[in-house]
Amino acid sequence: MLAINETCNIDCQKAGCNWSVAYAMAGFVMILTAVNAILLVVGGFFYRSRMIGIFCHSCLTLFSLISVIMTYNYRFRDQGKLAAMSTMSSRNITDTEYDPNWTYEDDGKLITKLLWAQGITLILCLLTSNLGCCVSKKNNLIGSQLSARPSERNQLL
Description:
The protein is mainly alpha-helical. The chain is 75% helix and 0% strand.
């Protein structure tokens, strides 16, 4: 609390821990990643959707990295640590009534779990998007190249 009082002015204190921004960014990235996964599945049948999905996958990997960094920053800065220790209710039932079973401490634990899930998803995205770059077999041709020129297929094989 002393560090917050020394470094954070009144406007900063009124802003709070901004965990809602971390929730929104992480949710937005995860929803876009799910939509992109569907686009890539459709890309198994249609070339254009596959290319769009591959491009979007690269962009979403960057957005996911930004989201992980931002979530970590909001959760583990001084305001986030202080909020995670609070046993005050944080969930609204109505406009004037709070749920006594859900506290800021529970929010802190949930954000930490979501941060881990996001980090694992980011690592999987990095591995799956760059796995093809690591293959170094001779005459390793992509299946679509072979099917594009059936007359040359026998010569290449």
